[in-house]
Amino acid sequence: MITLGIETSCDETSVAVLKDGKRILSNVVYSSLKEHQPYGGVVPEIASRSHLETLLPCLRAALKKARVSLEDIDLVAATMGPGLMGSILVGLSAAKALAFSLRVPLIGVDHVLAHAYAAVLYEPKLRFPALALVVSGGHTLLLKMEGVTRMKVLGSTRDDAVGEAFDKVAKILGLGYPGGPEVDRLAKGQDTKRFYFSRPLLSQDSLDFSFSGIKTAVFYEAQRLQKAGPLSARAKKGICAGFQESVCDVLVEKSLRALRKHRLKTLVVGGGVSANSRLRQRMEAAAKREGVRAIFPPMSLCQDNAAMIAAYGHALYKAGKRDKLDLAGYPDFVVSKARSAASNHGN
Ligand code: KG4
Ligand code: ZN
User: Fold this and answer.
1) Residue nearest atom 14 in ligand 1 by C-alpha distance
2) Which residue segment(s) compose the domain that 197 sits in?
């Protein structure tokens, strides 16, 4: 069975072709990041216009690379939310048009749940239940993956997503966008204790996160230091290390608590922030101590990509989900929407 996946929730236009839901024949990704960089963040209008211009070239490239034609497609899966509405509509409308004209089923996929499910493409033998930590520019979630249609939200952020906090801290320190990779680079080899930032919600039993407070603490610390002159490179590096350590402490500790509480032995990490070298190092060490398997899929599957959308769409289809052509997109991650997107009743 050939599944075509379409992802356009933010600044990546991606089209993938999968065989039987697990074998990636192609996974073409175009990023409009460079067009957003002068503005220090993703500009929704620029993103949706870029999707309009690049979706068909990406589709042609994905079909060519996979050596299939449109007539070979058996199923179309597309991101229906959460994300930038204008961007989602471009991909979802294209998916509807393709499904209608090819007379094949359409499946709407929740982008965040697909980030968690992406691990299956890397580890096809992954067994449920498993814990997923999804950390990206837009989301921070702990999910109990009980099955394809049973993804339970155990905790989520009450304010900023973790990647958003990395990007905002980078902005405060005058670093480029996206800030995560820069903070990661500057923090390498630095003393993590020179600048201490509190660990939000760590003392509470809840599995929820909060990152806007750390970002504000970094802002005040930078302001305090700047009274004596511009921030030195050494101070920037130290702040990056202190901030990153605080974030890692929270992500690792909450993941461990969720694993223990729900007696889970497998942890998968997905989303762009899973590229963070300190998070990988700390999470792998903690999982080893705990006797838990930590799975970090390759970055091509962690960052926004259509292979994860096709894989999860195919799994939902196999579980009996069916969607209609009036399928509506949604901008925010809402537990009830994600639940109905993942149920086999469809829309
Ligand atoms: O999943 P993603 O590619 O896009 C979505 O947000 O869906 O994640 C992008 C986020 C950005 O906030 C970026 O700063 C962050 O991932 N990121 C990192 C690293 N690489 C990317 N954050 C921390 N350390 C990194 N090495
Ligand atoms: Zn994403």
Assistant:
1) 180
2) 128-296
